[in-house]
């Protein structure tokens, strides 16, 4: 959840309850984000024992983690839609990484997947805290429950994958890449689950999260950054899709949720040009870049772009259509190679 959306709500709404929810969500998110950044994860030895281990807890609208156990691995549905969505989406994301990249959970070694739902009171976010997933229920007026969109779960869990691989520093361009990688694979998880090819997908993150009456379709669009919403209470989606519109700011750790639109669109352009299923070739190139150990934790857009070309060359050849598509995608968003 980009902080600029909640900042806008807190500033312009004439509804005291919405303003309070936005301010509390911002404060909680800031604390949790700092905790995640301080979390140190050492990649364990990979394991091929692909057995999911899911547990969902209920915070019962408190702010204590993990909360009361609500559902464990293999247990039947609880009847609480929020609990059961969180459980299902953990499983889909686990299955995606196994099927697409032979990755065993978030850390590659079968890390147990833990989620807490009903976190806080009208909490307007979801996050990965370095060890587990946490979901708010939303305020019901602007934002619905954050367990709803599969790609939100995928996005946050991929912060964990990044943590255990490239460990991209959460500031400036490396931070925007950290956010973008989560959007890329969050979208791939959803497309895989729905059986959609690149040309069939909506390329939206958070579709279905905005409540009725909000003028918008999602939180972000990889296909057309800057078009996901335009609402008096939320403002207009500020994401650029080209380096010509790069936003220099000290807010949001150097605009990590804003400038991620540029590498997001690069991935969309590559996947669309390659065609077929986005996770099979474009996704494999990005995954090889993230996990290959060749990029630094402070890599910028140009360095990441060069690494994707290198990864594609290793996978498909320097003159292959896939590699040309990757080169042209970065050129299309103004990132030099």
UniProtKB/TrEMBL annotation:
Compartment(s) where it occurs, according to its Swiss-Prot or TrEMBL record: Secreted
Its biological purpose: Extracellular zinc metalloprotease.
Official protein name in the record: Neutral metalloproteinase
CDD domains, A to Z: M4_TLP
Pfam families named in the record: Peptidase_M4, Peptidase_M4_C
Species whose genome carries this gene: Actinomadura vinacea
Keyword Chloroplast among UniProt keywords: no
Family label: Belongs to the peptidase M4 family.
Chief localisation class: secreted
Boundaries of every Peptidase M4 C-terminal domain copy: 166-335
Keywords, in A-Z order: Hydrolase, Metal-binding, Metalloprotease, Protease, Secreted, Zinc
The keyword Chloroplast is assigned to this record: no
EC number: 3.4.24.-
Cofactor(s) of this protein: Zn(2+)
């Amino acid at each position: 959840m980009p902080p600029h959306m909640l900042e806008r709500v807190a500033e312009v709404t004439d509804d005291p309850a919405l303003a309070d929810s936005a301010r509390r969500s911002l404060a909680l998110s800031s604390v949790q984000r700092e905790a995640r950044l301080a979390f140190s994860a050492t990649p364990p030895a990979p394991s091929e024992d692909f057995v999911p281990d899911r547990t969902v807890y209920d915070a019962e609208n408190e702010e204590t983690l993990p909360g009361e156990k609500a559902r464990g691995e293999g247990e039947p549905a609880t009847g609480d839609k929020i609990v059961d969505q969180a459980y299902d989406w953990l499983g889909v994301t686990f299955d995606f990484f196994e099927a697409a990249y032979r990755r065993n959970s978030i850390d590659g070694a079968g890390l147990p997947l833990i989620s807490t739902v009903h976190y806080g009171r009208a909490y307007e976010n979801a996050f990965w805290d370095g060890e587990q997933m946490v979901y708010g229920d939303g305020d019901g007026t602007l934002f619905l429950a954050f367990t709803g969109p599969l790609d939100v779960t995928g996005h946050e869990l991929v912060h964990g994958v990044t943590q255990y691989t490239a460990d991209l520093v959460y500031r400036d361009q490396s931070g925007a890449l950290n956010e973008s990688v989560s959007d890329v694979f969050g979208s791939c998880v959803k497309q895989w689950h729905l059986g959609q090819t690149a040309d069939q997908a909506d390329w939206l993150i958070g579709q279905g999260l905005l409540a009725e009456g909000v003028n918008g379709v999602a939180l972000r669009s990889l296909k057309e950054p800057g078009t996901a919403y335009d609402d008096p209470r939320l403002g207009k989606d500020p994401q650029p899709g080209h380096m010509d519109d790069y936003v220099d700011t000290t807010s949001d750790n150097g605009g990590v949720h804003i400038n991620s639109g540029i590498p997001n669109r690069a991935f969309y352009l590559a996947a669309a040009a390659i065609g077929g299923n986005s996770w099979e070739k474009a996704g494999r190139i990005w995954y090889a870049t993230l996990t290959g150990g060749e990029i630094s934790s402070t890599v910028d857009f140009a360095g990441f772009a060069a690494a994707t070309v290198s990864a594609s060359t290793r996978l498909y050849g320097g003159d292959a259509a896939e590699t040309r598509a990757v080169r042209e995608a970065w050129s299309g968003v103004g990132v030099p190679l």
